[in-house]
Amino acid sequence: MKTLTITRPDDWHTHVRNGALLKTVLPDTAKQFARAIIMPNLKPPVTTVAQALIYRDEILQAVPVDMDFTPLMTLYLTGTTSEADIKLAAESDAVVAFKLYPAGATTNSDAGVANIKAIYPALSALEKYDLPLLIHGEVTDEHCDIFDRERLFIETHLNDIVKNFPALRIVLEHVTTNEAVQFVSASANTIAATITPQHLLFNRNALLAGGIRPHYYCLPILKREQHRLALVAAATSGNPKFFLGTDSAPHLSTLKETACGCAGCYSAHAAIELYAEAFERADALDQLEGFASFYGADFYRLPRNITTVTLEKQSWIVPSAYGAGDSTITPLKAGETLSWKLR
Ligand code: DOR
Ligand code: ZN
């Protein structure tokens, strides 16, 4: 059987929620990834080191006994985050970054930042204490076409942030456009990006052609094919600015299959297999290890993992749903065939 063995990967962007949902989804992340950046958009958001420590404990409690997994915590940047908050975070071993959500951009972003210029003092403190800033890069102007929101964020905000804080390390999360790929590629080495499996595998037809498919709805939204191709080229290029971040974002099936469904694709059930599929289609399986296991660790200045995982070339059908209490979570590619399987 054809196999592929790579250094154990990390997920540099995931949502594992809390409570019962956390217990359901966390084993999927822990079975494949050694570490993951945990997004802080809970209700209420994780804004302090004390809250992050409590959340980290809850996550560690949900790791199955036979698995070894380290959650890397982030704090949610708000209009009132102070330099003292940032200093405390920099001194904490648990917190590795701050996340900037423009207010209203996505799930649980109401507490996010309404006026980006007004948080420049906080960005200056992040630069000073050398803590990375993770950005959901979309403008939230309701008059802006949803397919243009990422491009306009770069033009309106990101250019200025990068110019004003040249030493600030920034990850533009879940990039979805050719413009984002070009921006990150042309920037200094302080600027990197994560790429999700859904944005490598699908364009917006998956969401909208021949019927509306809510399980392909995430933010930033899937774009045209030309953008998907730019993302595949970036991910498979060997450029260390681009690395794995699933943005796995579980919502109960009932909350997605409704008149106003939540944004988020659940991909943790088969994340590394989904990426393997995308890399194989691009004839670039040899680039998977760098993207999945090396470049993110290098950017965050953490050691690369030492152990390995093995994928087998083997067809399997993704379950149509995973149980979550009385409800279910519908995974990415539910009921469809994947050609790689984690051993
Ligand atoms: O689709 C998304 N879902 N995008 C995000 O930025 C947040 C996420 C979530 O938390 O559900
Ligand atoms: Zn996310």
Q: Give the radius of gyration.
A: 19 Å
How much β-strand is present in the residues?
Answer: 15-25%
Bound molecules: (4S)-2,6-dioxohexahydropyrimidine-4-carboxylic acid, zinc ion
Strands ordered across the widest β-sheet: 2-3-4-5-6-7-8-9
The global form is: globular
- Provide the CATH architecture: Alpha-Beta Barrel
Instruction: Assign the CATH topology.
Output: TIM Barrel
Pattern of helices and strands: EEHEHEHEHEHEHEHHHEHHHEEEE
CATH class: Alpha Beta
Helix content: 25-40%
Round the mean pLDDT to the nearest integer and report it.
97
Main sheet: strands, sense, barrel: 8 strands, parallel
Number of distinct helices: 12
Give the number of domains.
1
List keywords for this structure.
343 residues; 34% helix; binds (4S)-2,6-dioxohexahydropyrimidine-4-carboxylic acid; alpha/beta; three-stranded antiparallel β-sheet; 12 helices
Protein architecture, described:
The protein has 343 residues and is of the alpha/beta class. The protein has twelve helices and 13 strands. It has helices at 19-30, 49-61, 83-91, 120-129, 149-164, 178-186, 197-201, 205-208, 225-235, 253-256, 271-281, 288-299; strands at residues 3-7, 11-14, 35-38, 70-76, 95-100, 133-135, 170-172, 191-195, 242-244, 308-317, 322-324, 327-329, 337-342. The strands form three sheets. Strands 2-3-4-5-6-7-8-9 form an eight-stranded parallel β-sheet. A three-stranded antiparallel β-sheet has the order 1-10-13. The chain has a two-stranded antiparallel sheet with strand order 11-12. Strand 2 (11-14), helix 1 and strand 3 (35-38) form a beta-alpha-beta unit. It starts with a strand and ends with a strand. It binds (4S)-2,6-dioxohexahydropyrimidine-4-carboxylic acid and zinc ion (ZN). Zinc ion (ZN) binds next to loops.
